[in-house]
Amino acid sequence: RYGGADHHASRSPVTMAARIAASPVLGAPVDNGGSMRFARAAPPATFSRRARVWHFLENDTRLMSFLTCVIAISTLTFILDTSVEDPVTRRVFFIIETVAVSLFTIEYVLKLIFAPNRLKFVRAKMSLIDLVAIGPFWVEVFIANVLQREASINLSWVRVLRLFRIFRIFKVSKLAYGFRIVMAAMRMSMTSFSVLVFFMLILVILSSSLMYMFEGTDPPHPMQPRPELFATIPDCMWWAVVTITTVGYGDAVPASPAGKVIATGTMCLGLLSIALPVTVLGSNFTKVMDMYEQELDM
């Protein structure tokens, strides 16, 4: 394909980026409509014009850095726009947003035109994220300016969807590989996490039932200043989750001696139930990093 690029790639040494992308530790490479080996292994000089444009759109570090800055500015504008009332400032934010989304739209259209496999490109995960990032903005503009119905339609869900563009940062190689390393470590720790969830569920039910018995009975315990917080077992479950996770909001506090004993036991068991899986996750993360570094040295 593309002037014998695959033949040249088969004779060329695989680059470090390609080895990282094909790593069995990190899972399958992120494919956005073209061959990973085709996109990274062969020198751009062997590509046809269409292939060179695709290679530039997918792999040029300067373009990625520029788009990352645009993503950051656009996301910051989206956040600040929710706290600004001045119409002039909001107009400036809208112009920045329009320029950013226009750039994302141009990038998406160019990739759609020059992709080696357009159907595969459209169905790729990153392409779907791109589409979700730019689509709601144009829908909002169309409704507000063409249909003139913005006042009668709630567009808050459309504006929130535009925040999906932040996930495009994972297209930058180092962030993508780092994210996949973390996900690989979490997959290796799923057994420990399932045990944690099961144990915490039992602990929440048991501690909340006991707390309801001593703090939320009718009539309530005379030492409890806010018995309504322990009025039902579901109310006590909120207290149990806050206590087990060591958050400790302080909105619901046991007052009876028996309630304090139950709270003490819940705190200690909560610390143990969370600390053990975290240790397993840290150990698996170290293993994945070691495997990752060994593959880079191959």
TrEMBL record:
It comes from Diacronema lutheri. It is a multi-pass membrane protein. Keywords: Ion channel, Ion transport, Membrane, Potassium, Potassium channel, Potassium transport, Transmembrane, Transmembrane helix, Transport, Voltage-gated channel. GO terms for cellular component: voltage-gated potassium channel complex. GO terms for molecular function: voltage-gated potassium channel activity. The chain crosses the membrane at residues 63-80, 92-114, 191-214, 261-282. GO terms for biological process: action potential. Coiled coil: none annotated. It holds the Pfam family Ion_trans. It is found in: Membrane. PANTHER family: POTASSIUM VOLTAGE-GATED CHANNEL PROTEIN SHAB (PTHR11537:SF254), VOLTAGE-GATED POTASSIUM CHANNEL (PTHR11537). This is Ion transport domain-containing protein. Residues 66-288 form the Ion transport domain.
